Amino acid sequence: MTAADLSACDELRSLAGWNQTIADWQQFLATQPDGCFVIEERGHVLGCVTTICYGSTLAWIGMMLVHPDERRRGIGRVLMKRCLAYLDGCGIKCMKLDATPAGQPLYEQLGFASEWTLTRWSRSKRGGLFSKSNSPCRDCTPNDLERVIALDATAFGVRREELLRALVAHSERVLVAEAGGQVIGAGLLRSGARANYLGPVVADSPETAASLIGELLSVSASENVFWDIPDANAAAIELAVAHGFERARTLTRMARGEPRVIHQTQHIFAIADPALG
């Protein structure tokens, strides 16, 4: 994949109804310039996929897209094998992805195993107005970033500093919750092609998460908000229901390789993105 391919890749994204933007594509390519791939025929991009390496411990595979008219030709398998060869060559120990129901059988054939499920929750303005919270949260400052990165690493399982700095730089709002001089929660609200996106949100407790999420939702100017929640986090689901969100779709988090990176789902109240983990 090169910068010249991004328009075609975003067209595939649009056909699939996904929420990423051109800025997201640019970030994928900037973060892993040798690890993003397209497959083309007679000059037309038929499919694409991205990878992101979080050190040598974990890699994420995302944005697996094949043009609707070109499915059942083995294009997804070719792209995945190219990804796996690249990541194996990088010495990555564990690889993960969030699978759609349609993609899951292919990933299983390639050695991925299911870990847990997550659900996208969606809310539109037609569902009611976001209420302003009285939270103790505040805007994130540059001095907070290292502590936010460390908090995220505790919940996610590995440091993803470059990614988080990029997400913070391009977010509509970034909040932190602090207690005793420690950052105990952080959350982002970002723009998307179809909706604002809530996440990642990590917190030490449901109470901290409720403050962050209430404040983030109160400033959303989107017609819609997407929020991806691990199904194991019952407290996050309760918050989504309380804010008027409804279930939209379910994905399966899958992993290949050892040792597995373990996520602390009780502290993950919103993931970063299915393409990011």
Give an account of the 3D structure:
- With 277 residues, this protein is of the alpha+beta class.
- Helices cover 31% and strands 32% of the residues.
- It has eight helices and twelve strands.
- The chain has helices at residues 6-16, 22-31, 75-89, 104-109, 145-156, 161-169, 206-218, 234-242; strands at residues 37-41, 44-54, 58-66, 94-99, 113-124, 138-139, 173-179, 182-190, 196-203, 224-230, 246-256, 268-270.
- Strands 1, 2, 3, 4, 5, 6, 7, 8, 9, 10, 11 and 12 form a twelve-stranded mixed sheet that branches.
- The longest helix is centred in the N-terminal third of the chain and has 15 residues, at 75-89.
- The radius of gyration is 18 Å and the shape is globular.
Topology:
Layout lengths: L5 H11 L5 H10 L5 E5 L2 E11 L3 E9 L8 H15 L4 E6 L4 H6 L3 E12 L13 E2 L5 H12 L4 H9 L3 E7 L2 E9 L5 E8 L2 H13 L5 E7 L3 H9 L3 E11 L11 E3 L7
Parallel strand pairs: 3-4, 9-10
Antiparallel strand pairs: 1-2, 2-3, 4-11, 5-10, 5-11, 6-7, 7-8, 8-9, 9-12
In N-to-C order, the SSE pattern is HHEEEHEHEEHHEEEHEHEE
Major pleated sheet: 12 strands, mixed
Mean pLDDT: 94
Low-confidence stretches: 127-132
**What amount of the residues lies in strands?**
25-35%
The shape, in one word, is: globular
Tally of DSSP β-strands: 12
Beginning-to-end CA distance, first to last residue: 21 Å
- Rg on CA atoms, Å: 18 Å
The number of helices is: 8
Tell me roughly what share of residues is in helical segments: 25-40%
Derived structural class: alpha+beta
